[in-house]
Design a protein that fits this description.
Elements lengths: L1 H17 L4 E9 L9 E4 L6 H18 L3 E4 H4 L16 H10 L4 E11 L2 E2 L11 E12 L5 E12 L12 H20 L2 E9 L8 H12 L3 H14 L4 H13 L3 H14 L3 H24 L17 E6 L44
Parallel strand pairs: 2-3, 2-4, 7-9
Antiparallel strand pairs: 1-8, 4-5, 4-6, 6-7
Helix pairs in contact: 2-5, 6-7, 7-8, 8-9, 9-10
Amino acid sequence: MCRNTLLPCVYCLAIALSGCAAQKASFTQLRPARVVAPMRRLVVLDITGPASMRATAQQVIVDGIARSGAYEIASERDLLPAAPARLRFENGSANMPAILAAARRIGAETVLAGRLRIEASGQSLGSVTVRVGDPRIVAAIQYKLLDVRTGRVIDQNSVESFYEGELQTTGSGPTSRSQVFARLTKESAALVVASLAPHEAPVEVELASQAWGPGAAELKLGNRAARNGNWDEAMKQWNNAVLVNQENDLAWYNLGLAHEAKGAFRRAHDAYQRAAALKQDERYLAALERLNVAAEGFQVALAQRSRRIPTGRVPPARHQHPIRSSYVAPAAGPNTTASATHPTAGRRLPPRQGPMPLERGAVGLPQDTVRH
């Protein structure tokens, strides 16, 4: 009786001491724009909305689109010399016919117009007293992308980011009113960029770990490096774990994560396949499916970034519902880590047909796409 009780206790203690609780790490991947339009030069109009935050939203959108390298950016100020009339009416609303005419004259194909809205507990910024301890703050940007030649709306959407949790009405800490408003505004603006331009998106993954046995020490050292963002060191340690035990499916899985983080999609695919062959685990199947989507998206993003953009009829927008990003404050503690789950995680996938798409850093691809 004592022996039957003691062994499970020793096993649980060993797991606790070895740090086998779920460990996570993150990296970024190049993702394609959601909207595909035959445009080379884009005019970004001044964002309207709360005066304290609209400049922040404008800067994030302009910088994000410019950083993608996919389009030439023009501002509303660039339109002034070519404008046949005032670009804005007395109330600040856009004189769209004059804007489109000026945009055509400077050789632009599209115009982006956006409006920022910030709400606290259901009331607009400027007319609300936030209830400390139970507020909900929402920053939303409604935007339209218009064809300069026809005035047709190529894409329109509303993207938003929200915060729930304790809010400080004074001070300048991370949960202060001003900092929360600024963070949500930047997140919403980044979602606009993600719709219109290839961009780097964060990916959070779960690391595999083991309590003891061959390769356990190397696996632990690699996990520590990955959590700190040092994927080179993590790859080295997980390679050592595989050398110690070629049948260690956990080490093969983690090694696949390291290759994926470095953009080596073929090698990541091989490592995930090896892990799945050694043991049936939903994590390995989900990783293979995520990798297939990421590799294909990477190729599309590269084509967009190099401006090999298809011409002709613009396909309809694929998302008509709002795109949301959320931040929920923790119950206690100053640190919070945002996380996202891949929408297809856990689903079984058929074997991949054909070779994996080209990888980051492969011959012929721009070297600035490699992110370490």
